[in-house]
Design brief:
SAM-dependent_MTases_sf; transferase; single chain; alpha/beta; about 20% strand; about 190 residues; nucleic acid binding; 6 helices; Rossmann fold
Length: about 190
């Protein structure tokens, strides 16, 4: 298992299986943070609290970004927005068309759920906004259709999830362009 000793979120926050919460490894979170810091200035984190809360506190990206999540344990954060993916339009009007990136990791991998997350992402994003999405490789065609995204070389390590996910972006990534050394090579 990956070393979590340097990631405060992973140390302090337990996964909630009832909400399908499975955190990325510390190294995967670090790669995502590096990708975000080099590619965006204002980010909407849809069901990705582990990444939002791992951004450097003093970074401009953290100060201008928001986390959208169903789990209200983070409601005291000034940039928390309660988010129910079944109501994708139920978003604060002042945040619409306001973000240059969304990071998405839904609790379910079905087309219906991805369509709802896509609707929310498109409402939150500015024109030409960037997307980082996390799902199974089998959803490649679906994410290409909905978000114009392609799989990245970097695959996330999610220690307590039984199947392998991929990252997908609608732009050419930098930190996610290399393979993740935590993930064994495919045979």
């Amino acid at each position: 298992m990956a070393d979590t000793s340097k990631n405060r979120f992973l140390i302090k926050t337990s996964e909630n299986e009832l909400l399908n919460q499975y955190w990325y490894s510390a190294a995967t979170i670090e790669a995502l943070v590096q990708e975000i810091l080099s590619s965006a200035s204002r980010v909407a984190f849809l069901s990705t609290p582990s990444v939002y809360f791992s951004l450097p506190k003093d970074s401009e990206v953290k100060k201008s970004s928001w986390v959208f999540d169903f789990d209200e344990q983070w409601r005291t954060d000034p940039h928390f927005c309660k988010y129910d993916f079944n109501k994708p339009e139920d978003l604060p009007g002042n945040l619409l068309n306001d973000f240059d990136m969304v990071v998405i990791d839904p609790p379910f991998i079905t087309r219906e759920v991805w369509e709802k997350y896509t609707k929310a992402a498109k409402l939150l994003l500015k024109n030409e906004g960037k997307v980082i999405a996390s799902t199974v490789a089998e959803n490649d065609g679906l994410l290409s259709e909905l978000l114009g995204s392609k799989p990245c070389n970097f695959k996330p390590s999610i220690p307590h999830l039984i199947y392998q996910y991929n990252f997908f972006t609608n732009y050419k990534p930098t930190a996610l362009a290399e393979k993740n050394p935590e993930i064994p090579e495919d045979d």
